[in-house]
Structures are given as C-alpha cells and as structure tokens.
C-alpha cells in the first residue's frame, strides 16, 4: 500500500489517454476517470479512497519510485 501523500504525474503522449482511480477497501471499484489529450498533464494523489490508479494509452508516469512509460510493449 502506498503512502497516502504520494503524488503521481501523468503526461499524455497521445490523445485519449484514460486515467482511472480505483477504490480502497474490500471491493475494488472504479470511482473516477479522466481523459487526457496529447501533452496534457494530470497530477494525482493516493487518498483514503484511492488505492490504485490505472492508465490506458501512451503516457509518461512519474512517481517517487521512478519513471515508467505506459502503452508500449517492452522490447
């Protein structure tokens, strides 16, 4: 489980990147989603209600734990 004060930064590398917040608790559910267009940046935070964040599409994601690019197959 992440620190509740952890932020992540998501920068869309294409239009239509979806960022989905997932709930904390016994039943994991979607509770919020955002669509980003190329170049848009979203700063998200883990909270009492958000235990996970899912990213669909090509995006750069930065956390205190490092940097990752979504939407690309590893070579």
How does this structure look, described?
By secondary structure, the chain is mostly beta strands. The protein has a single domain (7-70), classed as Immunoglobulin-like, CATH 2.60.40.50. 0% of the residues lie in helices and 56% in strands. A 4-stranded antiparallel β-sheet has the order 4-1-6-7, with no helix packed on it. A 3-stranded antiparallel β-sheet has the order 3-2-5, with no helix packed on it. It is globular. The N and C termini lie far apart (29 Å). The model has no long low-confidence stretch (mean pLDDT 86).
What layout of secondary structure does this protein have?
Blueprint lengths: L6 E6 L4 E7 L6 E7 L4 E5 L4 E7 L2 E5 L2 E5 L5
Antiparallel strand pairs: 1-4, 1-6, 2-3, 2-5, 6-7
Give the class-level CATH name: Mainly Beta
Mean pLDDT: 86
Class by alpha and beta content: mainly beta
Q: What value does the Rg take, in angstroms?
A: 12 Å
- Overall 3D form: globular
What is the CATH topology?
Immunoglobulin-like
CATH homologous superfamily designation: TRAP-like
Which tags fit this structure?
transcription regulation, Immunoglobulin-like, 75 residues, four-stranded antiparallel beta sheet, three-stranded antiparallel beta sheet, mainly beta
């Amino acid at each position: 489980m992440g620190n509740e004060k952890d932020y992540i930064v998501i920068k869309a590398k294409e239009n239509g990147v979806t960022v989905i917040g997932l709930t904390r608790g016994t039943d994991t559910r979607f509770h919020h989603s955002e669509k980003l267009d190329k170049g848009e940046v979203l700063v998200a935070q883990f909270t009492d209600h958000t235990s996970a964040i899912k990213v669909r599409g090509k995006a750069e994601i930065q956390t205190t734990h490092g940097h990752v690019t979504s939407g690309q197959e590893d070579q």
